[in-house]
Amino acid sequence: MSICRVCSGAVREFFDFGLQPLSSAFVDPAGVDDEYFFPLSIGVCQSCTMVQLLTPAPRGQASHEGYPYHSSGSRVMHKHFQQLAHRLLETELSGPDPFIVEIGYNDGVVLKTVRDAGVRHLGVEPTGRGAVRVHSAFFNAGSAAEILASEGPADVVYAANTICEVAEIAEIFEGLKVLLAPDGVLVFEDPYLGEILERTAFDQIYDEHFYFFSASAVSGMAERFGFALVDVEHLPVHGGQIRYTIARRDRRRPTQAVADLLAREREQRLVEPEKLQAFATAVDRIRDDLLELLTRLRAEGKRVVGYGATAKSATVTNYFGIGPDLVPFVCDSTPSKQGLVTPGSHIPVRPPADFADPYPDYALLFAWNHAEEIMAKERAFRDAGGQWILYVPEVHVL
Length: 398
Known about the structure:
The chain has helices at residues 75-90, 109-116, 141-151, 170-179, 193-199, 215-224, 256-268, 273-299, 313-320, 371-377, 379-383, and strands spanning 2-3, 10-21, 37-45, 51-53, 99-103, 120-124, 134-135, 154-160, 180-191, 211-212, 227-235, 241-248, 304-307, 330-331, 349-350, 362-365, 387-390, 396-397.
């Protein structure tokens, strides 16, 4: 067993995806022999119930300068972050001279929105890229002290799809103790364990996600570090997330939403062995069904291409053993991925124009969390007789 990064309890493994590449490390076809692989397995702490990877990938891989995901590339996500920024402006950032810090701010949709409203802001990220004010560092007690000295306390510390990446989670809370104003809040949103298990969204498990949060585990984690979980909100984006709000202990009364979600998780017995074993069985059933479908379509002479060279697709292709023999290429709109091959599985990545030249018979949708937006954009594919293959929550064809 491994040791929990939150409470030092014993972590019991419940699924092993084998050796996996770094999910965003797309490869030049000439350099496939130099890839880094690490063991990707997931377990649950027997003490605090935090679900986590047993082995973290090297720190900083998810935030290197060539990191290819940008939230503004999706209209849905751009709107999502703008709406969150406006809500914060109306609530937590409505006082005199408010100040917000965003950890791992990606391309800065939230910070640009609050900047345009005249609110002081700062992004904290090691690479220091983007068109917003930046402090180039990991967020911890040291960087928090530097920010506090130059900017004063933060009313809001915000993070999206970032807190779950930080294996040494104590560093985040030590930074919060230094930087957060007495009545300030940490607001963060990450994939929700309940959705992952319920929908068998196994491809949310890859190197960049170390923790898989539930409300009960987050509540216990916050208490351990002198804070409290005071609000939760379910979000439909990225296949199901929870937005958590954390405050200093005894500064705010938790909302009814917190009590309701904690009660629901107890009723669902979210991390009981039987629940986790059912998830493991469902993952392998999806693997068998998808491989059977792709193999049959190849035998029938049908053409299948991938759509969306996502980070999560690395788990699918490498654990399932899907390569160019079954999926000759995958289309993606990110220029920095085009001309490279996918990590580990070495499927060529091509620009969107190749998707329609000519249309394939089937498209394997790796970016299933953006299915509605993508299918609306690619209506001509359906009109031409094309069909979509999805594998969450089970293999099905649309």
